[in-house]
Amino acid sequence: MAVLVGEHTRVLVQGITGYQGEFHTARMLEFGTRVVAGVTPGKGGTRVHGVPVFDTVEEAVEETGANASCIFVPARFAKDAALEAIAAGLDPVVVITEHIPVHDAIAIVDFARRRGVHVIGPNCPGITAPERCKIGIMPSHLFRRGPIGLLSRSGTLTYEIVAGLSRAGIGQSTAVGMGGDPIIGMSFVELLELFERDGETEAIVLVGEIGGAAEEEAARYIREHVRKPVVAYVAGRTAPPGKRMGHAGAVISGTEGTAQAKVEALQQVGVAVAELPTQVPELVARALGR
Amino acid sequence: MRLHEYQAKELFAAYGIPVQRGVVVDRAEDLLTLDLRYPVVLKAQVLVGGRGKAGGVQLAATPEEAREKAARILGMEIRGERVRRLLVVEAARIDREYYLAFVVDRSSRRLTLVASAEGGVDIEEVARRTPERIVKLAVDPALGFHPFHGRWVARRLGLSGPLLGQFAEVTCDLYRLACERDAELAEINPLALCDGQWLAVDAKLVVDDNARPRQPDLPADEETTELERMAREYDLSYVELDGDIAIIGNGAGLVMSTLDMVAHFGGRPANFLDVGGGASTEAMRRALDIVLRKPGVRALFINIFGGITRCDDVARAIASAPPPVPTSIRLTGTNEEEGRRILEQAGIFAFTDPEEAARRAVALARGR
């Protein structure tokens, strides 16, 4: 089993007629994802790569039985699109869009929590369950199916680590890019819970970065609830305070959010923390007893 | 983006939050002709913290004293930032100092009120030493923030009588400002009691960069360097650091880990440039231009993991304008073979392994 997605997942792409939406719909279809519908208000009745396009999410769900959403809508319309998806009960809702205002993200995440919907992102690469389903923009060829559950705040760093694992012959059950913004739907704790329960996942790789306290919260959760081995990498050991390092959420505020504090918190609960991303596969192999 | 105190206070005033009468000046002579009641307080307008300790806030009893002190402060540099402007306000007689802020709280994923009866000091310090002196309230976004919330907080700060309701009004005004102006942080420290009146003696406002398009009347961003602004115009993320190895990569996390790798092998990054997830040849050209403008760069490290970014696009940019400093390149992922071929034709070598490439970059910066 994968977490959150699987063979049952029927994806609706919001913003399917845009440049990114169209391009990545093709990649998702190639991967084998069941992309069943697209939505772009005003463009209902057309098709993109054979996928029917509707004006509203409601109509798309009625006609196609879509049960998950992937959002490529530009930032200023993204809140509306995400709320529409959540209201229609799609789950998960994967928000790829970057530069969504943080107050909009708060509204999206809050509404999702009330409705019991899982939101991944915003500003994320999506979720991939090798051989079953990919929602988002991760490069497909890097993945192979296997026992590792991966959760990460970074996109390309995820690709780097997944590629390293695959090269070492270690596949993945599901990889989730949680997003680089300060306010995101699912964070480490919610995902650790899913991966701990997932039968296919034997070990967990957690990729963190500077900013906030999500890694520290993850460490507390791991101590109480996670029995599977966890390997981690935290980016930004050399980042200066007060500067946003590419991601809106990657910033050390005052004394909060340093890589050192995160590494220490994780090490204290028995997580093997890699100093370099290239060391992750070896630590994972050791955790798996290989 | 952080606003200056005087800019934040203009907004506070527009939202009905009481602030002192004041004037912004950039020349010491202006102090002689101000229509203000003395004594006044001169406050250096800088975006870095710790200006008080650095002597950037001073009291003056007469126009002549104010002019002298202003001349001194206007020449100062506070933690690397030149003081170009002063906010001059009429001094207030402060009876008590409180702390009040709305902040985007990442853990609760809500806009959160933070208040304390221990104002005028570093709130992080208060939170560490005496967490029981901090009152927090995460605002339910569907409900909003109402006067009764403000009174709930006021009671926990030990307020009563007319002050309780007036405090609640200030909290509601600040909440409205934070929401309408897309604030990540709207802070009053101290929120002072002066003769039975609330007064925002200092103001800090950080506006969400992602909300810029819908906040068109924001002042110019003075927090970033010229190169950082230039990068933003090209939609690239750039951060200036103080080493000698220029760094380009694709994706924020990957670039951060690239800095870490360079430091791990004993090098010092000069900057951080993220060309983004789907970097084109043009974006890569601009990236090269920006990182190499930084003075003192001795080597360049390009770390590309092609996903949506295509290695051939990156290679074309590098080959068309070979960098004038020693360069270590790591190139792998989508269209890798084509990218490698383009570089080889230009006589440029690229690594596949990031560690090897990082070691090489460090050696190049040391002239080896």
Overview of this protein structure:
The complex is a heterodimer of chains A (290) and B (368). Chain A has two domains: 10-120, 3-Layer(aba) Sandwich (Rossmann fold), CATH 3.40.50.720; 139-287, Rossmann fold. Chain A is built from nine helices and 14 strands. In chain A, the strands form two sheets. Chain A has a seven-stranded mixed beta sheet, with helices on both faces. Chain A is of the alpha/beta class and 290 residues long. Chain B is of the alpha+beta class. Chain B has three domains: 21-90, 2-Layer Sandwich (Dna Ligase, domain 1), CATH 3.30.1490.20; 96-214, ATP-grasp fold, B domain (D-amino Acid Aminotransferase, Chain A, domain 1, 2-Layer Sandwich); 226-365, 3-Layer(aba) Sandwich (Rossmann fold), CATH 3.40.50. Helix content of chain B is 34%, strand content 25%. Chain B contains eleven helices and 17 strands. Chain B has helices at residues 5-14, 63-74, 123-129, 147-156, 162-180, 226-233, 252-264, 281-293, 311-320, 336-345, 354-365; strands at residues 22-25, 40-44, 57-60, 77-78, 81-82, 86-90, 96-105, 110-116, 134-138, 183-194, 197-200, 204-207, 237-240, 245-249, 271-274, 299-306, 327-333. In chain B, the strands form four sheets. In chain B, strands 7, 8, 9, 10, 11 and 12 form a six-stranded antiparallel beta sheet that branches. In chain B, strands 13-15-14-16-17 form a five-stranded mixed beta sheet, with helices on both faces. In chain B, helix 4 (147-156) crosses helix 5 and helix 9 (311-320) runs parallel beside helix 10 (336-345). The longest helix of chain B is centred in the middle third of the chain and has 19 residues, at 162-180. Classes of the chains: A alpha/beta (290), B alpha+beta (368). At the A-B interface, helix 4 and helix 5 of A face helix 7 of B.
Helical content of chain A, roughly?
25-40%
H/E series of chain B:
HEEEHEEEEEHEHHEEEHEEHEHEHEHH
Q: Mean pLDDT across all residues of chain B, rounded?
A: 93
Q: Strand share of the residues of chain B?
A: 25-35%
Q: Would you report the number of β strands of chain A? A: 14
Number of domains of chain A: 2
Can you identify the CATH superfamily of the largest domain in chain B?
Succinyl-CoA synthetase domains
Tally of DSSP helical segments of chain A? 9
Report Rg of chain B: 26 Å
Helix content of chain B: 25-40%
Total strand segments of chain B: 17
Number of helices of chain B: 11
Most extensive interface between two protein chains, with residue counts: A-B, 61 and 51 residues
How is the quaternary structure best described?
A: heterodimer
Q: What distance separates the N and C termini of chain A?
A: 22 Å
**Name of the CATH class of the largest domain in chain A:** Alpha Beta
Average of the residue pLDDT scores of chain A:
96
CATH topology annotation of the largest domain in chain A:
Rossmann fold
Q: Separation of termini of chain B?
A: 41 Å
CATH superfamily of the largest domain in chain A: Succinyl-CoA synthetase domains
What is the number of domains of chain B?
Answer: 3
